[in-house]
Amino acid sequence: MSTATKALNNLIEAARLDADHVFSAPWEARAFAIALKLSEAGHFSWDEFRDRLIAEVGASERIRARDGTSDHGEYYEHFLRALERLLDEKGIVL
Amino acid sequence: MSGDHHNTDDTGPAARVKALEAILTEKGLIDAAALDAIVDIYETRVGPRNGARVVAKAWTDSEYRKRLLANATSAVAELGFAGPEGGHLVAVENTDRIHNLVVCTLCSCYPWPVLGLPPVWYKSFAYRSRAVSDPRGVLRDFGLELAPEVEVRVWDSSAEIRYLVIPERPKGTEGMSEDALAGIVTRDSMVGVAKIAAPASRRIDSGRARA
Fold this sequence. Notes:
The structure holds 2 protein chains of 2 kinds.
Chain A: H1 3-17, H2 26-40, H3 46-67, H4 75-89
Chain B: H1 13-26, H2 32-45, H3 48-60, H4 62-70, H5 72-78, E1 88-93, E2 98-103, H6 112-115, H7 125-130, H8 135-141, E3 151-156, E4 161-166, H9 178-182, H10 187-191, H11 199-202, H12 206-209
Parallel strand pairs in B: 1-4, 2-3
């Protein structure tokens, strides 16, 4: 079984065990809610946030492609880093 | 695993989120109750049950099905489903000859109003990197083997366009009501990584289908 197949199978299995599972940890839910709330309040647009998220995800993937490793469901780590970066750029958190 | 992803107790994500929330609360930009409300909405109220109602209606109401295929954004809004990340929604229909599969190769674009937030595997590199290059292999990972003559169409979601798969209505469901049909439509089938089992074999799987 290839590494990619194995990684996907692990994630599929995790989703099966907990079908309604949206967040893996309370901090993920909190980070999501903070981003959505600030976006709804007009501090940034969701598109601006998505651009940072795509950049974080892409950077991680270039490392994975180089090292031949697969992810373990760390999406919200990218999400949080994207949020921190955007808030910093916007001068919202000083 | 890359070194920069290791976290200590002080700089781990939970601690960073807590610090961020404290600063933003102090600045009056957020409050705990508003965050709780958002989490509640996405954990319990916005989810694949919405999409299942759309699919069940499309199966039982041919005029609605036409409207859904013509303009999914307005057709789902008829049922009250709209909101963030609903943008421009496109419905694609599975048949005995065409199987549609949805992915977001860049990040995690997904039709929130009808499916809620995406599952972990949808956001994974393993899924995103292979759904386009080896869709049949990915489907096999989900336990779905398609006949060679079935054409697989892969849709790459973006900030502009989101997709909802209308799965095939299983045989043996002719007498079922729209509500009962909505109960058998799974999230995975609306992303295109699964088919919906016929009623007889579905019972074994009822734990998973429940939402």
